[in-house]
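User: Can you write out an input/output pair for a complex, sequences first and structure second?

Assistant: Here is one pair. Inputs:
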Amino acid sequence: MPNSVDPAVKELAEKAGQQGPLYITEHSVPHDFDFPENFRVDAVPGLLFYEVIVQNAQEGHVIAWWKSHEAFEASREPFAKLLGSTAVLCFQGFQVPHRPRRNPVGLLRPTAIVAAVGGVVALLTGLSTLQDWAYSMLAIPDCTLWTDPEAAAKPKASGEPFAIQIQIKNRHLRASSTAIITPVLSGNGLKLADDTDSYAVRIGPGKAEVQEFRFIASHGGHYEISFEGKQRAGSVIPSSEIPSLKKTIDVWDSLDQSPQVSLVKSSDRSASVSVEVHNAKPTPYGMAFEATLANPGEVDIRPDKRSIQHAEDPLRNVDFALLRWVMPRSGDVLTAQTLRLVLQEGGVTTRSADEWNQLLKRLSVHADEPDELSFSGDQK
Amino acid sequence: MKILKLIGFIAASMTVICSTLAQDSVAVEGKVIETASKTPIGAFTVKAYPTETPTTPSASVSPASKALAQTLTRADGTYSLTISTASKTVILQFEKLAYFSVPPQQIVTLTSPKTTVPDVAAVKYSYGRTVSTHDVLDAFKIREESFNAMMINLSPSERENARKKSIEFDIFSLQKAGVDPGTITAVKTKYLSPP
């Protein structure tokens, strides 16, 4: 015998219960109890079916399903006789129809999912549209300017147009911005290479646009360009200034006529001086140099033979010391060339590095292409 | 006593040697003046080259020549070169980067013990550009003023002849240097035409 209600009996009871509530009774009986072999359900009026289950080693239970409570009451005594004198009614009551819990997975039907997703999308789209509209009205512009520092640091040639690319980055992630960038030039000699006026650039949210400006410098030097401009995002928000971007441009002449000098090292009676030549173009005829030291005292200017091979004899009088030399032709373009001079004290004066630096203020180096009208060079 | 005699002998010998050397050399002196500012220009290199044909205006510096002497102009533009009297004439060449001197080369007949050369005018110019006609005319004015100051003891006719000869030498020197014909004509018109 089973120790619990057979599922088939449960299902039968549920089906029977759909017509109306059944009445159930449960009776405690000895564990070896069973109905007589010839017992038939229809022998007890109102009894629909029953099941005998074993509760434990001493006890069994008989569960009976009745057509109604009245039917059970009518057949109560004959049914009790069938169960025996030791049987005890331990439970009676109506069978409540079983309402199975709805499986939540069941709700996730494709149509429901599609509908739900559609609803969410529609909601989000609506919100997004609303938000976009709000941003288009109220967004505060947040653009920044940037340029490649390496490209900007490269020297440019005077007389030749050069381009600087400015990246305008819209840091606002929701709203587009409009920017107008204008380069502001300082000093004479630098101007925009073409007459292109500044124009408005529209930059998408979180995006960047590149605008190129072309310049031309009439002569060498350091020029400062300040890229400035206005930006606008929300239609009801007034336009504002973009944080400016300042760049210093190093422009080299075709031929560097005034090379810069600097002290490299010194002892108390001599100093090594670097002459840095910045040529923007090749020098097919070489270069001629004149280094002139005013008020030289006993100081001579001598060539450092490792970098200057073709020098004239140094000259000196009370007012000036002079060294003239030529440099062979070179195909280098926009590449710094470094030469070395030696300042040699011929008297008894000794100098510290600071004093040599003071003396360097009186040293000027002039360079040009050699020609017979101003520089013949001595044949040696 | 012997030591004093020795010192005296050495001093006397040195005096003789120095005076001999002094007699065998000529000091060539002059000045370089910038046209634009009319002020002396310093740190010009002045080189003296030998020439074998002293009176020929076509005498020029050979590319293979080595300077007999060279010096720097002082801050006031003056210079002084010491040249051996073995040379009767020399060619003076004035050099400074980005400057054109008028004349570019000057033939000087050496006169012991000192030879004074008319002022040289320095014209600033840029490489690859023609020398300004205005500046060259200005340079000739500086030359003329200097020449007149030097020849003050000559009679007017002698002075005029010397002046013309000097200008003709200078013009020839410009032609050799490749100065443009327009500038040469302008100089001739202004300084060689009869008044």
